[in-house]
Write a structure and sequence with these properties.
13 helices; globular; transferase; Ribokinase-like
Length: about 350
């Protein structure tokens, strides 16, 4: 890190989840009606999955939730605590204590709302070879309310931030909170960044997504998420990722002085940076099969790496290269975890 940053310049809102991660056979996935690389919300039939992982497989507990993951990675690379502030809702239980401890260790300044009648959310991370499938039981994360952001101390944190990041996943929880943060960012002329997060967000939560999109300065997504958005919008079925990216940046925007940017990842293929009518490609260093431990959290890590440079006012190409660096590091570790000191070089 170059120079000391002001504390609290980056605010993130999302669903704090405790990841329960284990390697499982394919029939385990199939037994719950899941496919490889799924990212779904748990239904009643999925509820036994969490206990089964703990009882029958070598399950690990990891601090999870997409935005919290990204902020942890950003903090790891920045090496200075409390640059990032996180808001989300947890229960009053042991899982919440674990999340608090993990956030603190990572240097994230977490300000959880606490639900006294609902347990902390969990996410089953099912690893099959190099694939990972997610089944999230939001539980307490679903209980987040805008009241929490209106508390004077929390409102001050939101007002004083210089950058804002929210996941599409949070659209399933509390759109009014997202709109409030987006309006603050717009009023203060500060960047508001968002993630498409998963195909089901575009498929089932398009209305709140389209409401917040005019505020979005930078939109992140992977190819599956971008295609789901395009399909739901009725864009041409043969549109490639570049065309989808151009259409994303051309969607209506409240602050036209700051044109929208789309950053689309496609696994080991190049990352696309789409601005106006230009598309730039950034190569991704391919890993050998034996180096890939688990792809869980790679997308979150990419955003975390990006944010670590973005809050330092680095150029977009440096931000993206750091995103790729972080994603590569995370893929070589179990879950969204890191090891050692970061050694990213601009």
């Amino acid at each position: 890190m170059t120079s000391k940053l002001q504390e609290g310049i980056l605010v993130g809102c999302g669903n704090p989840l405790l990841d329960i991660s284990a390697t499982v056979p394919m029939h385990f996935l199939q037994g719950y009606g899941m496919k490889e690389d799924d990212a779904i919300l748990a239904e009643e039939r999925h509820m036994p999955i969490y206990r089964e992982l703990v009882e029958n497989y070598k399950a690990e507990y990891l601090a999870g939730g997409s935005v919290q993951n990204s902020l942890r990675i950003a903090q790891w690379i920045l090496g200075q605590p409390k640059v990032a502030v996180f808001f989300g809702c947890v229960g009053k239980d042991n899982y919440a204590d674990i999340l608090r401890e993990k956030a603190r260790e990572a240097g994230v300044d977490a300000h959880y709302q606490v639900s006294t009648d609902t347990p902390t959310g969990t996410c089953a991370v099912l690893i099959t070879g190099t694939h990972r499938s997610l089944c999230a039981n939001l539980a307490a994360a679903n209980k987040f309310t805008i009241d929490h952001l209106k508390q004077p101390a929390n409102k001050a944190l939101v007002d004083n931030a210089l950058y804002y990041y929210i996941s599409g996943f949070f659209l399933t929880v509390n759109p009014p909170s997202i709109m409030s943060v987006a309006a603050t960012a717009n009023a203060k002329q500060r960047p508001f960044l968002m993630n498409l997060s998963a195909p089901f967000i575009s498929q089932f939560f398009m209305e709140p997504l389209l409401k917040v999109m005019p505020y979005v300065d930078i939109i992140f997504g992977n190819e599956a998420e971008a295609h789901a958005f395009a399909t739901t919008q009725g864009w041409p079925a043969d549109a490639d990722l570049r065309e989808i990216g151009k259409r994303l940046v051309a969607l209506p925007k409240i602050n036209s002085a700051r044109p929208r940017i789309a950053i689309l990842t496609q696994g080991c293929d190049p990352v696309l940076l789409i601005q106006h009518d230009t598309v730039q490609e950034f190569e991704v260093t391919r890993l050998a099969v034996h180096e890939i431990v688990d792809t869980n959290g790679a997308g979150d890590a990419f955003v975390g790496g990006f944010l670590s440079q973005y809050v330092q006012d680095k150029s977009l190409d440096v931000c993206i290269r750091c995103g790729n660096y972080a994603a590569r590091h995370i893929i070589m570790n179990p879950g969204c975890t890191y090891s050692g000191e970061p050694d990213f070089v601009e």
